[in-house]
Design brief:
Two copies of one chain form a homodimer.
Chain A (H helix, E strand, L loop, with lengths): L9 H8 L3 H8 L7 H14 L5 H8 L4 E7 L4 H4 L2 H15 L3 E6 L5 H10 L5 E6 L6 H8 L3 E4 L13 E4 L1 H14 L5 E5 L5 H13 L8 E3 L4 H14 L5 E4 L2 H13 L9 E6 L2 H4 L7 E5 L1 H15 L16 E3 L1 E4 L5
Parallel strand pairs in A: 1-2, 1-3, 3-4, 4-5, 5-11, 6-7, 6-8, 8-9, 9-10
Antiparallel strand pairs in A: 10-12
Chain A binds a DNA duplex (30 and 30 nucleotides) through α2 and α4.
Chain lengths: ~350, ~350
DNA sequence: CAGCGTGGTGAGAGCGCTCTCGCGTGCCGA
DNA sequence: TCGGCACGCGAGAGCGCTCTCACCACGCTG
């Protein structure tokens, strides 16, 4: 633990380079409209002095912070038990870094923490926010929307706020679910069950919808509600076996639950995929590849989702983000999913 | 995506409350030495105007940012494949939030990114840094040390820098490994093998040392070097079986590798724990509880490590962090581990 | 009653930067 | 040759805050 030394200011650089503060500022910020000689001289002085601009002073006048908040609103520890969040963060970080933005991480710690986060966001410390709010009844999205700060959501916010346009990035949960169920049907399976995720999350609801799209008049007993956890998957699988012993396929709303289901199936003496085919969702490698048999699942490009969120936000801030042709006002994006065939179906 | 409205300034609040800027400032920052009447009046004005201090302006004069950088230097995606990192982050976040500090996340993106991070840290944007640098040859710790910014490391940095005191928080990797191996020995096992982690990381090296502490004159063939991945664990286990078919216990340096080893053992027709007992390290629940049989492992309190890192750093900054009696200069902490008995040993 | 603290308040000087504005220089066409 | 017009550069005014310092009332002591 060492202490910070006094840092050189613009003034100091200017003095050393024999120019004015303004010129140094110009050079530091791109150097347009300054003769090459001077640019060179200033650069040298900057190097020699080890000058680094004071971001606080800069923000004070520009009202920009080049910082984006990433808000993770998750009451439970669950997000942390899977790499989902970390991968998104990674994508976000890459994109932000590429555009010289910092990432300020805000994790909510329980119920009353929303206010703190909202206050922070409203406080103008950051230029925008990337928000992960997975629950339908979460008050956070609305609070943030009210804070009047540019925001992009991770996953469709299941939230019936006012008509202001909400920008989000999501996977095609419904389509992916359809693909999974169709694949099972294509395998000749007829009793295709579904283990849902926590239905207060849009992803779970959408996957259920996808299942229903294909299984239009499915026996309701084929649907077991769970919560995205392995234990929940086990419980649901047991229920299903009890209710419908003839079940010959299971589509679980995520890999974790699928792994739980697999265990129960094995315990019940069923062979996978011979007796019962199983498909998960997410393609969490550490889980999906390690199950026995390896899990067939629906992959979503999680890192890309993160990257896209950041890109949309920065574009909305109309900064140096890539333009890619069209409109200035970014709109939501739904990324495709792909079915990854492994051993379980 | 909405735009930010013009925010009220100290001046505005002062005008409304009929006092001077200085007084408002005093109230906002604790309100000592101001008559209760005025405090009340100012508070009211603040509320009515929805005043939030401009952090940039404040930092400009105080030279404090109330922000801490968390640097994760991990070339591979590995950190992201496990909840380790996320849990530490959570602990860190809790502690920082409790002391009104923001968390700025810096992820390195490959080799040349160190310079960027070092520059940022040296730039005085944050008050301190929490650094995760897992590799022995990582230049980052030294760069950061040179940046002259208060730093606490996550895990013992395996780095032979100069004699300046380095503060870190680590698990008792060596002790935990000893416990694991002793437990296996206590089970009557004699051919106890070790699957190492990536030995360029201190945690792996320390766990190996712990193994050696107990198995003082172990047959070198009982040690297989791997890399913390499930695939590496599989490979190492195959090697071990080939070299020493009589192996009756395995201590893997983490749960992921243990799960790989488990699979290979099962594939080779061995029963766990009857024929071969297996112990992992980390106690990553999603992995350890889902293996077949559930994994006996060495638990470390990851979230607590994170919390402790933050606490040490804040204390070093000598701010409102808890004092807990003693010295102002914080020193490294090594947290104890505990053996968690499940089915595999 | 003069003198002197003492606690509450306001005035004002910056913190380090950006950005507008205006001035000086060199170069063009008339 | 001279007026104009770029263009390059510097002076200076803030951005919103903190913090020192001087000021003013008190109430106290000598």
């Amino acid at each position: 633990m060492t202490d910070t030394a006094p840092r050189p200011t613009l003034e100091a650089v200017a003095a050393r380079a024999g120019v004015s503060r303004a010129t140094v500022s110009r050079v530091v910020n791109g150097g347009d409209g300054v003769r090459d000689v001077l640019v060179e001289r200033v650069r040298k002085a900057v190097d020699e002095l080890g000058y680094v601009p004071n971001q606080a002073a800069r923000s004070l006048v520009t009202r920009r912070h080049d910082a984006i908040a990433v808000v993770v609103a998750e009451p439970e520890t669950r997000v942390f038990a899977d790499p989902f969040f970390a991968l998104q963060l990674r994508g976000i970080s890459k994109e932000l870094t590429a555009h010289d933005n910092q990432l300020v991480l805000l994790l909510t710690e329980g119920r009353d923490d929303h206010a703190r986060v909202a206050r922070y966001l409203a406080g103008g410390h950051v230029d925008g926010a990337l928000v992960f709010s997975l629950h339908l009844d979460d008050p956070l999205p609305e609070l943030i929307q009210r804070a009047g700060i540019p925001t992009v959501f991770g996953g469709r916010p299941g939230w019936s706020g006012d008509r202001r346009e909400v920008v989000y990035v999501d996977s095609d949960n419904r389509g992916g679910a359809r693909d999974a169920v169709r694949h099972l049907a294509g395998l000749g399976r007829t009793w295709i069950a579904h283990i849902t995720g926590a239905l207060d999350q849009t992803s779970a609801a959408d996957r259920l919808d996808g299942y229903r799209d294909v299984m239009v008049d499915a026996d309701p007993r084929l649907i077991a509600e769970a919560d995205f956890t392995p234990a929940g998957g086990e419980r649901a699988m047991r229920e299903l076996l009890e209710r419908c012993p003839d079940v010959d396929a299971v589509f679980a709303a995520n890999d974790l639950m699928a792994s739980g289901a697999l265990r129960v199936l094995r315990g019940s003496g069923r062979r996978v995929p011979d007796d019962v085919a199983v498909i998960g969702f997410d393609d969490m490698r550490p889980v999906a590849e390690q199950t026995d048999p390896p899990l067939t699942t629906v992959r979503q490009d999680i890192e890309e989702m993160g990257r896209l969120m950041a890109r949309l936000l920065l574009r909305g801030l109309d900064r140096d983000a890539p333009r890619e042709g069209v409109g200035a006002t970014p709109s939501s994006v739904v990324l495709p999913t792909t079915l990854v065939r492994r051993g379980s179906a």
